[in-house]
C-alpha cells in the first residue's frame, strides 16, 4: 500500500460521513415517500445512465434490498454495450418518456428514484419532469455542485426537477485524488450506494414503526433464502420484468 493510500481512505470515509449528516432530514422525507408508495402497493422505479446505472443495479434484486423495485433500463444507456454511444443516448431528448411509457409507469402510485452525478442531460431531467407531472414523488440522488459546473443540456437540472434531493456532495468531474488536482478515484458510485443504503435503513425503521412488513429480499445462498423470497416473486414477478 502506498504512503498516501491510508490518507485517501480516510478522506473517502469522511466524505461518506459528511453526506450522511448533510442528508439526514431529506433521507427521512424520502423514506416517507417510498413507504407511501409501498403501502399503496406501488413500485419504486429506479433509473440512471452510464455509471449511475451502478446505483440502479444496487437497488434491484439483491440480498437485503427492497423487493418493490422496478429498474428502468435501456441497453443503449449502459457503457458495456457501447461507451461513447451510451453518452449520446442519455443526451437524447424523448427517451425518458419512451421508457416510462414502456414500463407502464402509473404516476401517483409509483415513486421514482433517479441516480445521476451531474444531472444535466435530458434523460435524467426528463425522467423527473415527466414523473412529477404524473403525480409521483421523485427522489434525485445527485450532486448540485457537479450540476453547477456542467453544461445544462436540458435547460434545467435533475436537482431542480426532483421533489427531494439527496446530495452526494461530489465535486464537478467526480475525481477525488490527488486532492489539489483530482484526476482519479471517482466518488459518485460510492456515494450513490451509500445514500441508497441509508435510505433503506430509514425506510425499514419507518415501516417497523408503522407496523408495515417491508418486502425485502433474502440471500438465495442462505438456508431458507429461496423459500423466503417466494412470496416476493409471486407478488412482484408479473409487474417487474426481469425477475422471472
UniProtKB/TrEMBL annotation:
Domain SIS: 34-209
One GO BP annotation of this record: carbohydrate derivative metabolic process
Keyword Membrane: no
Keyword presence, Acetylation: no
Gene Ontology molecular function terms on file: carbohydrate derivative binding; isomerase activity
InterPro entries associated with the record: SIS_dom, SIS_dom_sf
The entry's keywords: Isomerase
NCBIfam families: PRK02947.1 (NF002805)
Record's protein name: Uncharacterized protein, contains SIS (Sugar ISomerase) phosphosugar binding domain
Organism whose genome encodes this protein: Saccharopolyspora kobensis
Taxonomic path: Bacteria, Bacillati, Actinomycetota, Actinomycetes, Pseudonocardiales
Amino acid at each position: 500500500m502506498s504512503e498516501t493510500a491510508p490518507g485517501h481512505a480516510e478522506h473517502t470515509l469522511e466524505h461518506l460521513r459528511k453526506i450522511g449528516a448533510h442528508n439526514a432530514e431529506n433521507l427521512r422525507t424520502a423514506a416517507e415517500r417510498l413507504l407511501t408508495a409501498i403501502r399503496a402497493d406501488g413500485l419504486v422505479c429506479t433509473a440512471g445512465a452510464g455509471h449511475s446505472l451502478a446505483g440502479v443495479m444496487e437497488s434491484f434484486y439483491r440480498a437485503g434490498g427492497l423487493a418493490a423495485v422496478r429498474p428502468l433500463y435501456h441497453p443503449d444507456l449502459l457503457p458495456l454495450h457501447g461507451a461513447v454511444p451510451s453518452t449520446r443516448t442519455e443526451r437524447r431528448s424523448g427517451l425518458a418518456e419512451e421508457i416510462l411509457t414502456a414500463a407502464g409507469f402509473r404516476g401517483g402510485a409509483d415513486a421514482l428514484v433517479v441516480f445521476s452525478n451531474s444531472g444535466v442531460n435530458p434523460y435524467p431531467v426528463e425522467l423527473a419532469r415527466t414523473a412529477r407531472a404524473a403525480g409521483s414523488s421523485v427522489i434525485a440522488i445527485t450532486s448540485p455542485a457537479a450540476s453547477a459546473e456542467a453544461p445544462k443540456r436540458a435547460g434545467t437540472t435533475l436537482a431542480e426537477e426532483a421533489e427531494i434531493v439527496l446530495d452526494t456532495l461530489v465535486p464537478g468531474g467526480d475525481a477525488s485524488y490527488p486532492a489539489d488536482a483530482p484526476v482519479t478515484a471517482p466518488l459518485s458510485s460510492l456515494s450513490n450506494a451509500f445514500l441508497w443504503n441509508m435510505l433503506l435503513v430509514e425506510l425499514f425503521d419507518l415501516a417497523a414503526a408503522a407496523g408495515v412488513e417491508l418486502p425485502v429480499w433474502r440471500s438465495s445462498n442462505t438456508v431458507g433464502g429461496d423459500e423466503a423470497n417466494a412470496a416476493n416473486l409471486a407478488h412482484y414477478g408479473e409487474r417487474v420484468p426481469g425477475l422471472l
